[in-house]
């Protein structure tokens, strides 16, 4: 007995009030399951496109949350720009033959690798050290085809702007300002 037959029997058993809903569900199932299989075969990965924050597990065909890679340095919990670039190069080498250049993940990796080359050659090393990984995140989102108005892109742009603003050197106060600035609360009347 096929899936559609089982659903029809279940629909009749539940009464005529829900029959139309069950028939629609059976029709949607009959269409979408084969389309998901076709998608998996065409992309070589999952039954559907994985959303941001998840990746395809080709063994199961399902999207799974991206596991954070363990940092190689014991002093830092966040991966450095160089580590992220190395991971992107590795991911490119591992996936390019299987996925092809047009795959969204490969487009995102290409944008990240282009940004890595740009950042590695940037003379503003303080900004690159502080904000380079945020620039890679933004490049990855744009590489996935998310437009400038997408909420994730807007959030990434905001975080990058804050980081760049915070990493800019602040002008040191003049000698006069230093003399007028109290060194501890209550030394000058307010």
Q: Can you characterise this structure?
A:
The protein is mainly alpha-helical and 190 residues long. The chain folds into two domains: 1-67, no CATH class; 69-169, no CATH class. It has seven helices and two strands; from the N terminus they run ααββααααα. The protein has helices spanning 3-14, 19-43, 81-99, 104-120, 125-143, 151-167, 175-180; strands at 54-57, 62-65. The longest helix has 25 residues, at 19-43. The protein is elongated, with a radius of gyration of 27 Å. It starts with a helix and ends in a 10-residue tail after the last helix. The mean pLDDT is 76.
Order of secondary-structure elements? HHEEHHHHH
Number of strands: 2
Q: Whole-Å distance between the termini? A: 87 Å
What is the number of helices? 7
* Fraction of residues in H or I helices: 55-70%
pLDDT < 50 runs, ≥5 residues: none
**Radius of gyration from the alpha-carbon trace, in angstroms:** 27 Å
What is the percentage of strand-forming residues?
under 5%
Structural class by sheet pairing and helices: mainly alpha
Question: How confident is the prediction overall: mean pLDDT?
Answer: 76
**What is the number of independent domains?**
2
Major sheet strand order: 1-2
Shape: elongated
Largest sheet: 2 strands, antiparallel
């Amino acid at each position: 007995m096929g899936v559609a037959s089982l659903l029809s029997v279940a629909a009749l058993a539940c009464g005529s009030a829900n029959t139309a809903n069950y028939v629609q569900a059976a029709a949607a199932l009959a269409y979408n399951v084969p389309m998901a299989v076709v998608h998996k075969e065409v992309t070589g990965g999952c039954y559907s496109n994985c959303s941001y924050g998840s990746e395809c597990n080709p063994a199961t065909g399902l999207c799974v949350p991206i596991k954070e890679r363990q940092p190689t340095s014991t002093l830092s919990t966040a991966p450095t720009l160089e580590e992220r670039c190395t991971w992107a190069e590795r991911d490119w080498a591992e996936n390019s033959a299987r996925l092809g250049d047009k795959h969204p993940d490969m487009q995102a990796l290409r944008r990240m690798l282009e940004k890595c080359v740009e950042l590695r050659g940037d003379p503003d090393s303080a900004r690159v050290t502080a904000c380079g990984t945020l620039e890679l995140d933004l490049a990855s989102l744009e590489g996935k085809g998310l437009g400038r108005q997408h909420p994730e892109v807007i959030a990434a742009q905001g975080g990058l702007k804050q980081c760049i603003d915070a990493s800019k050197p602040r002008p040191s106060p003049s000698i006069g300002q230093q003399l007028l600035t109290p060194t501890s609360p209550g030394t000058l009347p307010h």
